[in-house]
Amino acid sequence: MQATLPVMEAFYTLQGEGAHTGRAAYFIRLGGCDVGCHWCDVKESWDADAHPKLTIDAIVDGALHYPGRMAVVTGGEPLMHDLTELTAALQNAGFRTNIETSGVCQAVTGSWDWICFSPKKFRKPNPAIFDKADELKVIIYNQSDFAFAESFVPHLRPDCKLFLQTEWSRSNEMLPRIVDYVKDHPQWQISLQTHKYLDIP
């Protein structure tokens, strides 16, 4: 029997954040998360049992309806699930596989072309994620989050891209601080939630 995964939603849009901003992407948002960020804007993803379980074939078939060939697996916390079969099927169908993860899980399953590591203060990440991360994206909610972001840099590959992104509800206060921080620490870049500015999913 083929593996199934709880899919909260899947949709075709533009990547709004991080290193691949502006690129067409098919998003696969999996249910299940035990990190518990109080500012999370998809809390409905937390309960894996609340979402339909789809076969790998059904998930890939949905992606193939669109011309873009970048698939972004997100959540929730997608690595709560074994993603080996999903990524193999996506890559066999011609997709590049990207993931966004908090890195808290014990294993990084799946074959990934790009890993966005987005750590959260609420649970420490597993150090196994450090040498696999292509991108570090830290959400800035308050001033202490800058030091939190910097704490990961010595553990990452030298070529890992570094992004700071304001939590949306705190943009008016924190975005000017991020601008100043990046000007003083140019190894970092700003990530904006451009999909929200563009009013697209």
From TrEMBL:
Pathway(s) this gene product operates in, as recorded in its UniProt entry: Purine metabolism; 7-cyano-7-deazaguanine biosynthesis
UniProt keyword list: 4Fe-4S, Iron, Iron-sulfur, Lyase, Magnesium, Metal-binding, Queuosine biosynthesis, S-adenosyl-L-methionine
GO MF entry, a single one: magnesium ion binding
Cofactor note (record): Binds 1 S-adenosyl-L-methionine per subunit.
Binding site for substrate: L14, Q15, G16, R29, T74, P201
Root EC class: lyase
SUPFAM superfamilies in the cross-refs: Radical SAM enzymes (SSF102114)
Domain Radical SAM core: 20-201
Catalytic activity: 6-carboxy-5,6,7,8-tetrahydropterin + H(+) = 7-carboxy-7-carbaguanine + NH4(+)
EC number: 4.3.99.3
UniProt-listed Gene3D superfamilies: Aldolase class I
PROSITE patterns in alphabetical order: RADICAL_SAM
Single Gene Ontology BP annotation: tRNA queuosine(34) biosynthetic process
Cofactor: S-adenosyl-L-methionine; [4Fe-4S] cluster; Mg(2+)
Positions bound to [4Fe-4S] cluster: C33, C37, C40
Sites where the protein binds S-adenosyl-L-methionine: W39, C40, D41, G76, S118, P119, K120
Pfam families: Radical_SAM
Free-text function comment from the UniProt entry: Catalyzes the complex heterocyclic radical-mediated conversion of 6-carboxy-5,6,7,8-tetrahydropterin (CPH4) to 7-carboxy-7-deazaguanine (CDG), a step common to the biosynthetic pathways of all 7-deazapurine-containing compounds.
Self-association state and partner proteins as the record states: Homodimer.
Protein family per UniProt: Belongs to the radical SAM superfamily. 7-carboxy-7-deazaguanine synthase family.
Protein's UniProt name: 7-carboxy-7-deazaguanine synthase
